[in-house]
Write a structure and sequence with these properties.
Oligomer: single chain
Number of strands: 9
Order of helices and strands: HHEHHHEHHEHEEEEHEE
Strand content: 5-15%
Largest sheet: 3 strands, parallel
Helix content: 40-55%
Length: about 240
C-alpha cells in the first residue's frame, strides 16, 4: 500500500500473470508456453510498503487491528498462500527478497524526530518478517514438486552500509539526496525537488528508497549469497 502512488497487490499481479499466460498460450500454443513458464525465473519482493505506508501509520485500520507480531504473521501467511498459487500456475524457480532495515530509512528517522537514529522497533519487525518468511520459503522448497525457491536476505549487509557508509564509498546514510528544500518529509522526488551534489555519496535517494549505487551494492551482495556469478552484463549459476 502506498500513500500517493497507485499499487497492485501481489494477488492482483498474479491475476495479471494469469492473463499473460492465457495470451502466450494463444500465441505459441499451450505446450510451448507452459515450458516457458516452467523454466522462467520469478522474483518476488514485498513488505516494505505494508509496514511504512500501512501498519506504521495510525490513519490505517491495520495499525490498530494488529500488533507487530500478529501483523508479521498475517503477512507471512498471506505470502505463503500467494507463493503456493504461483507454483500452481507453473512457477518453479522463485526468489523472494527479504526486507532491509526499514527503521533506518530517512522517513522513519524523521518520524521519531531524529536525523541519525534508526527506529529499532521497526527494524525488529523487518527482522521478524525475514526470519518467518525465510522459514516459509525453505519449507515450500522442500515440499512443493520441482520447486527451487530461494530466499535473498541481505538485511545485515544493508545495515552495515548504513552504519559504516564510509567503508562502502558513501558519506551520508541518514538523509535523502532528493528533498524539497528544508521541507520534510517530501515522500517522493518531483521536478521541484532539490538534489544533492553527488547522489553516489548518498545511501538514500528519497525518504524511502536507496540510490542506484546503494541498490547496486545490495544487488551484487544478494547474488553473491545466492551463488549467482555476475559475468559482464549476464549472470550464471
Amino acid at each position: 500500500m502506498h500513500l500517493q502512488i497507485q499499487r497492485f497487490s501481489l494477488y492482483k499481479q498474479i491475476e495479471l500473470f494469469q492473463g499473460t499466460q492465457a495470451f502466450m498460450r494463444e500465441k505459441i500454443e499451450r505446450a510451448a508456453a507452459d515450458k516457458l513458464f516452467g523454466e522462467a525465473y520469478y522474483v518476488v519482493a514485498m513488505g516494505a510498503n505494508d509496514f511504512n505506508n500501512n501498519y506504521l501509520l495510525p490513519v490505517y485500520s491495520d495499525s490498530w487491528t494488529y500488533n507487530g507480531e500478529t501483523f508479521v504473521k498475517y503477512m507471512v501467511t498471506t505470502l505463503e498462500a500467494q507463493l503456493r498459487l504461483l507454483h500452481g500456475l507453473g512457477a518453479r524457480r522463485v526468489t523472494f527478497f527479504g526486507l532491509g532495515p526499514i527503521g533506518c530509512i530517512p522517513l522513519q528517522r524523521l518520524l521519531q524526530r531524529s536525523s541519525t537514529a534508526c527506529q529499532e522497533s521497526t527494524n525488529k519487525l523487518s527482522l521478524s518478517f525475514n526470519k518467518q518468511a525465510g522459514a516459509v520459503i525453505k519449507q515450500l522448497a522442500a515440499s512443493l514438486p520441482n520447486a527451487t525457491f530461494l530466499f535473498g536476505d541481505v538485511h545485515d549487509y544493508f545495515q552495515d552500509i548504513i552504519d559504516r557508509p564510509y567503508m562502502h564509498g558513501f558519506n551520508n546514510s541518514h538523509a535523502p539526496c532528493c528533498t524539497l528544500g528544508k521541507v520534510r518529509p517530501t515522500l517522493t522526488c518531483t521536478p521541484l525537488s532539490t538534489l544533492c551534489k553527488d547522489r553516489n555519496k548518498y545511501v538514500f535517494w528519497d525518504e524511502y528508497h536507496p540510490t542506484d549505487r546503494a541498490n547496486e551494492l545490495i544487488a551484487l551482495e544478494t547474488l553473491k549469497r545466492l551463488n549467482i556469478t555476475v559475468v559482464a552484463n549476464t549472470t550464471s549459476t
